[in-house]
TrEMBL record:
InterPro entries: Fe-S_Maturation_MIP18, FSCA_dom_sf, MIP18-like. Residues 10-82 form the MIP18 family-like domain. This is Metal-sulfur cluster assembly factor. It holds the Pfam family FeS_assembly_P. SUPFAM superfamilies: Fe-S cluster assembly (FSCA) domain-like. It comes from Limosilactobacillus pontis.
Amino acid sequence: MADGNETIEKKVMDALAKVIDPELGIDLVNLGLIYDVKVDDDGLCTVTMTLTTMGCPLTDFLNKAINEAVVGVAGVNNCKVNLVWEPAWDISKMSRFARLALGIHG
């Protein structure tokens, strides 16, 4: 994250922590789906993320929810979701909170 935009990027991450995966009932940040957030000088926020599986039926729903959350942050004018498959997501990317909430131990 760029030094000058660190505060706004933290606010974006806080906003993304309120976007809940409806299938799992856990937010995208704790699920480990958000890999990076960058905000440029023009207020374009690029969210680099992945999904738990390719062909996820919730892709459109999540894109809409992410866009709404991100552009709701002061200083962000637009949102671009950069969906990546590398590195591949696995349960090790989940926070301890998410693993406990889903009953995953270890």
